[in-house]
């Protein structure tokens, strides 16, 4: 049930992300698709002020949310946009926004969850994973929680090995 709802959410988010978005902060409730580990729907908020593609967080007033930068997302291929949304959704689904896990490990878990769910739900083919790898490889900078882009790209196909 959750996977079907997640599929609806990905479709809706894809339409939102692929369309030209106004560069002002706006909040949108996703249609019951991306939910946290408690089944609570995730709010998506566009903000051109953040310096990252996106991040997942819990807000005391609004609840679980994904904040994303439409300008930075516009520079990426559609498959990578979808991957990043699924990645941020994974942080909520896996409880990472509650402080569960080591920062570097949770990022890798979110990458794997995202690519697995996208392939499993037939949103992605193996070709689409390669497209995401190309985009990730161009993101050279890493930080205390993220591997550098080329290393992150190399690890992505390993997520599909069971």
Commentary on this structure:
The chain is an alpha+beta fold. The chain has one domain. The chain contains six helices and four strands; from the N terminus they run αββββααααα. Helix 3 (78-93) packs across helix 4 and helix 5 (126-138) runs antiparallel to helix 6 (149-155). The chain starts with a helix and ends in a 7-residue tail after the last helix.
The succession of helices and strands, N to C, reads HEEEEHHHHH
In total, how many beta strands? Answer: 4
- Note the beta-strand portion: 5-15%
- Structural class call reads alpha+beta
The largest beta-sheet arranges its strands as: 1-2-4-3
Helix content: 40-55%
Unreliable residue stretches: 1-32
How do you describe this structure in short?
With 162 residues, the protein is an alpha+beta fold. The chain contains six helices and four strands.
Note the main attributes of this structure.
single chain; 162 residues; alpha+beta; four-stranded mixed sheet; 4 strands; disordered N terminus
Helix-strand blueprint:
Layout: H1 2-18, E1 26-29, E2 43-46, E3 54-59, E4 63-68, H2 70-74, H3 78-93, H4 103-120, H5 126-138, H6 149-155
Parallel strand pairs: 2-4
Antiparallel strand pairs: 1-2, 3-4
Helix pairs in contact: 1-3, 3-4, 5-6
């Amino acid at each position: 049930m959750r996977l079907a709802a997640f599929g609806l959410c990905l479709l809706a988010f894809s339409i939102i992300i692929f369309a030209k978005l106004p560069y002002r902060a706006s909040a949108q409730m996703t249609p019951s698709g991306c939910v946290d580990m408690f089944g609570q729907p995730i709010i998506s908020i566009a903000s051109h002020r953040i310096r990252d593609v996106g991040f997942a967080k819990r807000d005391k007033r609004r609840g679980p949310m994904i904040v994303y930068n439409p300008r930075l997302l516009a520079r990426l291929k559609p498959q990578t946009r979808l991957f990043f949304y699924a990645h941020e959704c994974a942080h909520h689904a896996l409880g990472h926004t509650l402080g569960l896990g080591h920062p570097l490990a949770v990022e890798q878990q979110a990458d794997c969850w995202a690519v697995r769910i996208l392939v499993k739900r037939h949103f992605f083919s193996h070709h689409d994973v390669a497209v995401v790898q190309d985009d990730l490889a161009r993101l050279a900078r890493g930080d205390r929680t993220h591997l550098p882009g080329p290393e992150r790209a190399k690890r992505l196909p390993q997520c599909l090995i069971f």
